[in-house]
Amino acid sequence: MTPTNRENPIHPKFIVGIEPPAGRTEKALWFIFRGRDILLKVNKNPGAIPKLQDIGELGLPAVREQYLGMLEGTHCFSVEFPADVRAPEGMKFVDLRQAYSEMSEGCFELVNKAVQVMEWDRTNQFCSRCGAKTLQKPGERGKECPECGELFYPRISPAVIVLIRKGSKILLARSPNFPPDMYSLIAGFVEPGETAEEAVAREVWEEVCIGVKNITYFGTQAWPFPNSLMIGFTAEYDSGDIRPDGFEIEDAKWFSADELPVLPGKISISRKLIDHFLKEEGLEV
Ligand SMILES: [Zn+2]
């Protein structure tokens, strides 16, 4: 069962909540989405996330809302808007990838939570087993089918990401979808029945055709593209010559610390792994 009204030991300022408060009179933070765009205030002072007593103040037709919990005593909600809604005056819808690159890590963590709760709510309105309308499970972040009893909890997809070292160089690769000149680390989803370490070795082999050894855990990060838990590793080059697969990876090279290309944003675990490498090389980050 999801704990409610209990302090989170990692982010003590945020308390997860499931049941919305009754008789609320103070302003709450509203994480509002249209597809995967988030509604932000144009004037970011004192923050980009809209703070309102009620979502109805915007005069726009919300599809549905979910209560998230409390941030330092302020209630937080996620809201889904219809695809054709326009931003109210003084606000704009921003693509989530663009928005996260401009956010603090603390704000990103909440947006991440909000968008995943919103998408779980949107995509589990009906039972995928029998088609009946699902019901919210009281006191849990879950839905239940009243016909067949199937349960639907937010789905999290484990993915691995790895920094591969060869002497004083690291492997960086480019996906065709990346912004111009940007390179990052090899990453991919864990397959059913596979360990995270096996996924690292397989993804590296499939995408750039090299072998790795000494696969070592680094850390994890929740990542909302689309609902991943990124599991970070370091590894060492073992064998083979780089051969990009030409689909997921269009180019991959060994880079030394003083000739790095454009890198992912500071919040990402990819960048944290690269910054860790730079520190090991004795460079300021
Ligand atoms: Zn069902």
Give the tags.
single chain, 285 residues, alpha+beta, Nucleoside Triphosphate Pyrophosphohydrolase, 3 domains, seven-stranded mixed beta sheet, 18% helix, binds zinc ion
Question: Would you kindly provide a written description of the structure presented here, covering whatever features stand out?
Answer:
It catalyses: a 5'-end NAD(+)-phospho-ribonucleoside in mRNA + H2O = a 5'-end phospho-adenosine-phospho-ribonucleoside in mRNA + beta-nicotinamide D-ribonucleotide + 2 H(+). This protein folds into three domains: 14-114, Alpha-Beta Complex (Nucleoside Triphosphate Pyrophosphohydrolase); 124-155; 157-280, Nucleoside Triphosphate Pyrophosphohydrolase. It is built from four helices and 16 strands. It has helices at residues 96-101, 105-123, 196-208, 269-280, and strands spanning 14-16, 28-34, 37-41, 51-52, 64-71, 74-81, 91-95, 135-136, 143-144, 151-152, 157-166, 169-174, 186-189, 211-223, 228-239, 251-256. Strands 1, 2, 3, 4, 5, 6 and 7 form a seven-stranded mixed sheet that branches. Strands 11, 12, 13, 14, 15 and 16 form a six-stranded mixed sheet that branches. Strands 8-9-10 form a three-stranded antiparallel sheet, with no helix packed on it. The two termini are 41 Å apart. The structure holds zinc ion (ZN). Zinc ion is lined by residues 127, 129-130, 132, 145, 147-148, 150.
